[in-house]
Amino acid sequence: MQHSGPSIHEKDRYVPALGYRWLTPLYDSVVALTSREAVFKGLLLEQADLKPAQRVLDLACGTGTLALMAKRRQPSANIVGLDGDANILEIARSKARNTNVDIEFRQGLSDELPFSDHLFDCALSSLFFHHLQPDQKEASFHELARVLRPGGELHVADWGAASGAVSRVLFYPIQFLDGFSNTADHVAGLFPGYFERAGFRQVQVRHSVATMFGNISLFSARAPTG
Fold it and tell me: 14 or 134: whose pLDDT is higher?
């Protein structure tokens, strides 16, 4: 079973991708096989519709798959990938070097973003927020509102509301692996509330992708303008 997002910082320790550091090299293969990764990340970038010269943050970038896809779609965009795990960032940097793609990768935490105010035009995140406890999510969304320019765009792919009994049952393995307290708001359809409480507007669910573990929803929103 996959630990379905990049590493996070929890109670002063890192939880590596897939839960254990020795499994980190398998991360890309596991996610690709179990989450329809190419489909939902392609849709996420399609809705983001990145523009030339935009500054784009990939929050909790993991091994850099989404950041690399974004750079290929919009080569003149300035992509910055951020993750809390130095080991997984080395994989991301290696992938970028091997494909001659220029992306800046930095280490940092989502609730203490190491960036100045209003630096980014757009922020992306993929299968990360469901690992965070509610208070960490609240802090992280407020940080995103801070570093995005007024009216800047936020595009997030994460586990969404169950669409029925079957998708609800399919999601139980994710909850057993990643935790119930941090995933309950996702499956109950309460995740958009974090966007709204941080001041984001025009919060929408743009797509829903069915997977073997339930629905991955794609959200979009705009940063506060004042």
Answer: 134
Backbone phi, psi, residue 28, to 5°: -60, -45
Give the C-alpha separation, 170 to 150, whole Å. Answer: 38
Confidence of residue 178 (pLDDT cuts 50, 70, 90): confident
Query: Tokens standing for 166?
Result: 């079957």
Residue 34 CA, distance from chain mean position: 16
> How would residue 174 be classed by pLDDT, with cut points 50, 70 and 90?
confident
Contact 177, 1 (CB under 8 A): yes
Please report the sign of the dihedral spanned by the C-alpha atoms of residue 64, residue 69, residue 75, residue 77. Answer: negative
The set of long-range contacts for 14-19, using a CB threshold of 8 Å and a minimum separation of 24, is 14/84, 14/85, 15/131, 16/85, 16/87, 16/88, 17/62, 17/63, 17/85, 17/88, 19/177
pLDDT, tens digit, 9 for 90 and up, residues 89-98: 999 999 999 9
The values of phi and psi at residue 182, to 5°, are -90, -10
Cα(166)–Cα(5) distance, rounded to whole angstroms? Answer: 23
Task: State the Cα torsion 172-176-178-184 to the nearest 10°.
Answer: 50
Place of tokens 């940092």: 108
DSSP code of residue 148: E
Query: Judging by beta carbons within 10 Å of its beta carbon (0-12, 13-18, 19+), is residue 47 exposed, middle or buried?
Result: middle
Within 10 angstroms of residue 204's Cβ, the number of other Cβ atoms is: 13
Q: 154: how many CB neighbours lie within 10 A of its CB?
A: 25
pLDDT of residue 14: 52
